[in-house]
Amino acid sequence: MQALQQLVDRLMSLFAVGLGFPEDFFAEETDVGSPENNTMLDYTKHHSLEGIELGKLRQSANRITAHTDESLITLLLHSPGSVGLESAAGRDGQAVGSEDGHYKVDRWEPCPSKPGCIIVNIGDMLQYWSDGLLKSNFHRVRLPQEGEPQAERYTIAWFVWPRDGAVIQGPKKRYPPTTMRDFMKARASLNFLEDPARLSICFLLSQSHIESHKCTPQVQSQLSRP
Ligand SMILES: O=C(O)CCC(=O)C(=O)O
Ligand SMILES: [Fe+2]
Question: In what residue span(s) does the Fe2OG dioxygenase domain sit (predicted)?
């Protein structure tokens, strides 16, 4: 876990420099040693679909429906052979309110997991903090198709969040300053659901085929060990 945090520190310092902030700008905001820290480890098991007849659902239903992450960035680690993660372009200005609160994705790109690789998503808070320059990308996990592995799929997601008191505003001040909590309140209504008719199916699948465990306190105690 220390290694993950080192990677986060490196990535965030590169983003800081690229945006025109001091190199250590995000270091205090994302310090997992701080009691105000909100970074979270999320372990998810997608149950095996072997022997389950899903028919046409394979084409349309998802293991995780399309969304953007609220985080600054998210690091995704997958079990070998995981399939289904797909990404789409981010939504411009979404974090401060889109035209109608919805967004239609018309092209999904597969993001196959490769041995030894970590996938990094940009989240809504970094989009806001970068004046909309870095776009939080939509992503989803679709069901495995025929011929793809139907076995369990495991994901470890390291959601990097700023600390409680962080004031979020980009270097160009394109959006007004906000706190993490106010940002989350404003954002709550914005994550979209691709297709309401499909949603109930996705939801049922999610409920019965996913176990998720979030563990902030454990992570923090792990990290504070010498
Ligand atoms: O399981 C995955 O690959 C994606 C997980 C994800 O998007 C999330 O937990 O927010
Ligand atoms: Fe996500």
Answer: 45-162
